[in-house]
Write a structure and sequence with these properties.
EC 3.6.4.13, 7-stranded parallel beta sheet, about 500 residues, 8-stranded parallel beta sheet, nucleotide-binding, 3 domains, Rossmann fold, globular
């Protein structure tokens, strides 16, 4: 694994005109009203413009897309070349459809005064339109890994002439769910390329994997992985799991809740929260991987236009939500990975605004809360009562897997000591019913009052397991049949016929 070097200190660059970008790009930036680069842009653009690989880490909302798009467009403009049919020069990989669409829209904006063309492909939509788009001249392709590999297999696109490889949200792209697809894509593109990795969070383990794709990279970290935006007011409410729905409805009903994102841990949980909010009279919509692309676009569009106040999302689907004016972020479920919390609350307090992040914490999630506070070095402000915590996370209560019967005994209860479903006790061997419902022998209970059923039943089992001999015309045959288990074939036949083993011979008794 190649070592990662750090970029040298550069003078403060206060305007885009100081970054040495091509004139058409500066014209596009001026048309959009962009004059001053963000810190990540000021540090990353010169290194990428000079052809260096780069690993960039910055908080969400700090302009990572422009940080890699602008210098990449600059190099493509300065090095024109003729491409083979269905080939592209730059490949940008994204973990989600929304983020991919957002990146491609930004690239079209920056390249509006150039001849460079871009397109985006992702799953969840018909593939025919994407194949036709790739048949035309395309310089920059933004894609999700799954749909890209599908189109490569169909020979709709070739990656043999790639000059730039960009992985946005690298912590998610190189996580276990995407690593196999990325390894396959890496075998399809030239080794001589410029590789850029950008992410809002960059855990150490993921950074080690990412370094395998880079050659002598420059690392730019504007804000540490554990840093949260200073203008985010972070609070925590301690509650029980069953009280979360009512607490969420009460939290979202305040007038200050202008536009909020509610994060859940699972797709099923997101849909369940939407149903619970609907019962409380609060309109909301969910976006996650099981939603169709049309459903996700309609929900995100209504949220962006202000028609919908509440959006419920999972972590992966939330990547790429670039909506201004999000006043609140609610962690309905605390994430298992502390860095994910940093990315979640980064949806608010964007572009210098302030925001409020609220976390619901159950006793089972106290360990996750402690990990978040340790990473961010910030103690979340509690709202309401704070229950005592001894530092141990309580285990979840055991679930009753019962089908028919009472299951395993608990709390020292002897097997069988339970009422039947009809409320009646079981009948004992002496013809009387006992209150506990177990089969009892008074004589045995006097001598062994506390032995389990297995030991109490041993004499009865031994009696049935003894080979029975035929004593009369038919009474012994039933006993002999019950003792056939464990007997060899010859011994069993001799038992059934009443013959004795006498050196291989014998006759039926009279």
């Amino acid at each position: 694994m190649r070592p990662i070097s750090f970029g040298s200190e550069r003078p403060d660059l206060t305007k885009f005109t100081d970054l040495g970008l091509a004139e058409p790009l500066l014209k596009a930036l001026a048309a959009e009203g962009y004059e001053t680069p963000t810190p990540i842009q000021a540090q990353a653009i010169p290194s990428i413009r000079d052809g260096r690989d780069l690993l960039g880490a910055a908080q969400t909302g700090t302009g990572k897309t422009a940080a890699f798009s602008l210098p990449m467009l600059h190099r493509l403009l300065n090095q024109p070349r003729r491409m083979q049919p269905r080939s592209v020069r730059a490949l940008i990989l994204s973990p989600t459809r929304e983020l991919a669409a957002q990146i491609e829209a930004s690239i079209r904006t920056y390249a509006q005064f150039t001849s460079l063309k871009s397109t985006v492909i992702f799953g969840g939509v018909p593939v025919g339109k994407q194949i036709r788009a790739l048949g035309q001249h395309v310089d920059i392709l933004v894609a999700t890994p799954g749909r890209l590999l599908d189109l490569v297999d169909q020979r709709a696109v070739s990656l043999r002439e790639i000059e730039f490889l960009v992985l946005d949200e690298a912590d998610q792209m190189l996580d276990l769910g995407f690593i196999h697809a990325l390894r396959k894509i890496a075998t399809l593109i030239p080794k001589q390329r410029q590789t850029l990795l950008f992410s809002a969070t960059m855990p150490k383990a993921i950074r080690e994997i990412a370094s395998a794709y880079l050659t002598d990279p420059v690392e730019v970290a504007v804000a540490p992985v554990a840093t949260t935006a200073e203008k985010i007011d972070q609070r925590v409410i301690f509650t029980e799991a069953g009280q979360k729905p009512a607490l969420l409805a009460k939290t979202l009903s305040v007038p200050e809740m202008e536009r909020a994102i509610v994060f859940t841990r699972t797709k099923h949980g997101a849909d369940k929260v939407v149903r619970q909010l609907e019962q409380a009279g609060i309109a909301s919509a969910a976006i996650h991987g099981n939603k169709s692309q049309g459903q996700r676009e309609r929900a995100l569009g209504a949220f962006r236009d202000g028609e919908l106040r509440i959006l419920v999302a999972t972590d992966i689907a939330a990547r790429g939500i670039d909506v201004d004016g999000i006043s609140h972020v609610v962690n309905f479920d605390l994430p298992n990975v502390p860095e994910t919390y940093v990315h979640r609350i980064g949806r608010t307090a964007r572009a210098g605004a302030s925001g409020l992040a609220i976390a619901f914490c159950t006793p089972e999630e106290r360990g996750d809360l402690a990990a978040i506070e340790k990473l961010t070095k910030i103690a979340l402000t509690p709202v309401g009562d704070v229950p005592h915590w001894d530092g141990r996370t309580p285990k979840k209560p055991p679930q009753n897997r019962g089908g028919r019967g009472q299951g395993r005994p608990q709390n020292g209860q002897q097997p069988g000591q339970g009422q039947r479903r009809d409320g009646r006790g079981a009948q004992g061997r002496n013809g009387q019913r006992t209150e506990q419902g177990e089969r009892q022998d008074p004589r045995r209970e006097q001598s062994r009052p506390s032995q389990p059923r297995q030991q109490q039943a041993r004499p009865e089992q031994q009696r049935h397991e003894r080979p029975a001999q035929r004593q009369d015309g038919g009474g012994g045959r039933k006993d002999a049949a019950s003792g056939k288990e464990g007997l060899g074939g010859v011994a069993f036949l001799q038992q059934r016929t009443g013959q004795r083993r006498t050196g291989g011979g014998g006759r039926r008794p009279n």
